[in-house]
Structure formats: structure tokens, C-alpha cells
Design a protein that fits this description.
This protein is an alpha/beta fold. The protein has 7 helices and 10 strands.
Length: 219
């Protein structure tokens, strides 16, 4: 299993935003987290990425007790936000950022970055200034940045939000390949009737921070 939690609760002040008795997310599969705005979807991703510490409860990643300060486990998980934040510089510079932070040699880092840009179909954009990209292109650069690091799990917060249909198709194809060819664990948030719903092996429904029914396989 990738993620497992017991009696997890997250509070913002006095407000309970996440309250899960138990949740299990499989390893090497695509899991979609669905629910209305304010359901706790992003908060759950942050807990999985060890970016937010639960107020109460126990969390494990790959069977190991997880804590927010556990850098060893954190480096195996990448969270991609839908806003598509870009650093200053070129598209290639953006993809190289995380690789440099992890201390990869220059030649190896550039090779991985180039391969990741090819996977997301943006090789010809490598020298372009990242500030001029469209929303869909920014999302693909963020995905390339995550892929280049080669994590065991990628968490995506509404990857299909505010992007064009072609980008959604590219994202869906990419996620399936990561699952099938690299056994990468994918967890994403999405609308209940979105296209990403259709490629998910499992769906987790949240309402007001709580599970709605049991986890179920996508149709």
C-alpha cells in the first residue's frame, strides 16, 4: 500500500476540515479523490505528501510510519498544484530546478529534464521563457518537473482545471503510462464526472472532510 491512515483529523483553528477513520490508497495505481469544493481534497493530498501534519491520528507511507519532517519519505513523493507555479527563466530551467536541488550532476540533470519534456510533448519549448506559457503548457511543465525527479508517487491537485481538451488528453495518456510502465503511484483530485475519473483505478469520495461510503473502483 502507498498510503494508510487511522483516525486522522486535521483542524484549521476550531474547524475540522478532514476527519477520516481509515483510508487506504494502493501502490502503483491511479486513485481519484472526488468531492465538492471544501470537501478536504487538497488537505488530504498535503497529508499524503507530508506537507501537513494531522492534528490527530496515524499516517504511514509504504508501510512506514510517516512524519512531516521525514525527508527520506518526502523525497519519494511529489505534489503538483493546479496553479502551475513557474520559476524565473526558461522552461528547461524550470524542469532542472528540482534536479539541481537534489544534487544531480549537470549532465544527468539535463538528460532527465530533456526526457521529461519529451514525455509531456514540450521539447520544442525548452528554451522559451516560462512566463509566457498558457495554463495548459504550465501544467505540463509542472508535470515534467515532477517526472524528471522520478518519484514513487505523484500527487496532482486538479490537474485538469483551466486547461484545454488537448492538454487533458495528454495528461490522461501520461498518467496511464507512468502507472503501466513505471508502476508510479498517482493520486489526483478531480470533478466526479471529469475525464480523469475514467482513467482512475479507484475513487475516493469526500464530503465535508469525511469519506462518503467506501472506496470504489472507477467504472
Amino acid at each position: 500500500m502507498f498510503f494508510q491512515c487511522h483516525n486522522v483529523q486535521v483542524r484549521y483553528g476550531r474547524t475540522v476540515v478532514l476527519d477520516l477513520e481509515e483510508l487506504v490508497i494502493p501502490d502503483g495505481r491511479i486513485t481519484g479523490i472526488v468531492g465538492p469544493n471544501g470537501a478536504g481534497k487538497t488537505t488530504l493530498l498535503e497529508v499524503m505528501a507530508l506537507l501537513r501534519r494531522p492534528t490527530h491520528g496515524r499516517v504511514s507511507l509504504w508501510g512506514q510510519p510517516a512524519r512531516r519532517a521525514d525527508r527520506r519519505l518526502q523525497r519519494k513523493v511529489v505534489m503538483v498544484m493546479h496553479a502551475g507555479y513557474m520559476f524565473h527563466g526558461s522552461v528547461l530551467d524550470n524542469v532542472l530546478f528540482g534536479l539541481k536541488a537534489r544534487g544531480l550532476a549537470r549532465t544527468q540533470a539535463r538528460l532527465r529534464a530533456a526526457e521529461a519534456l519529451e514525455v509531456v510533448e514540450l521539447s520544442e519549448f525548452s528554451r522559451r521563457d516560462a512566463s509566457g506559457l498558457s495554463a495548459g503548457q504550465r501544467q505540463r511543465v509542472n508535470l515534467a518537473r515532477a517526472i524528471a525527479i522520478q518519484p514513487r508517487a505523484i500527487l496532482l491537485d486538479e490537474p485538469s482545471a483551466n486547461v484545454d481538451a488537448r492538454t487533458v488528453d495528454i495528461i490522461c495518456s501520461l498518467l496511464r503510462r507512468l502507472r503501466d510502465q513505471r508502476a508510479t503511484t498517482i493520486v489526483h483530485t478531480c470533478p466526479a464526472n471529469g475525464q480523469l475519473h475514467n482513467i482512475s483505478d479507484q475513487l475516493v469520495e469526500l464530503t465535508d472532510g469525511q469519506l462518503r461510503g467506501n472506496n470504489k473502483r472507477a467504472d
